[in-house]
Amino acid sequence: MNIETLREYCLALPAVTEDVKWGHDLCFSVAGKMFCVAALEGTLTVSFKVKDDEFEELSNSPGMRPAPYVARYKWVLVEEVSALSRKEWEHYVRQSYDLVRAKLPKKVAQQHGLS
């Protein structure tokens, strides 16, 4: 996984926007809610939301850990992008998107063409 491949995959999802936050993080959002964050400086690291029942196992897997500041919301930080296959990357990024999208208020989802 590299930043361009991640970017292409995220932007192909419905109603996704990207912006840079905190000066050095590329953030992907659906209806204004973040679902994936990638570091633009240094080694590529990526954070995303996972299901509650997957959090412990994934955050303790080699090359991964609980994401700083947002681990309480079940976000993991992938420090070694090779820890996941391309298929796993696609699964977890899409799952993060779906988890965030599912929590959107109905009106917001409709405004973004997601209902």
List the helices and strands and how they pair.
Elements: H1 3-11, E1 16-21, E2 25-30, E3 33-39, E4 46-49, H2 52-59, E5 64-66, E6 75-78, H3 86-102, H4 106-111
Antiparallel strand pairs: 1-2, 2-3, 3-4, 4-6, 5-6
Structural description of this entry:
By secondary structure, this protein is an alpha+beta fold. The chain has one domain: Aspartate Aminotransferase, domain 1. The chain is built from four helices and six strands. It has a six-stranded antiparallel beta sheet. The longest helix is centred in the last third of the chain and has 17 residues. The model has no long low-confidence stretch (mean pLDDT 95).
Which sequence of strands runs across the widest sheet? 1-2-3-4-6-5
CATH hierarchy: architecture: Alpha-Beta Complex
Strand content: 25-35%
Major beta-sheet overview: 6 strands, antiparallel
**Helical proportion?**
25-40%
End-to-end separation in angstroms reads: 31 Å
User: Rounded to an integer, what's the Rg over CA atoms?
Assistant: 13 Å
Low-confidence spans: none
What descriptors fit this protein?
single chain, 115 residues, alpha+beta, Aspartate Aminotransferase, domain 1, six-stranded antiparallel sheet, 6 strands, 35% helix, globular
Give the gist of this structure.
With 115 residues, the protein is an alpha+beta fold. The protein has helices at 3-11, 52-59, 86-102, 106-111, and strands at 16-21, 25-30, 33-39, 46-49, 64-66, 75-78. 23% of the residues are buried.
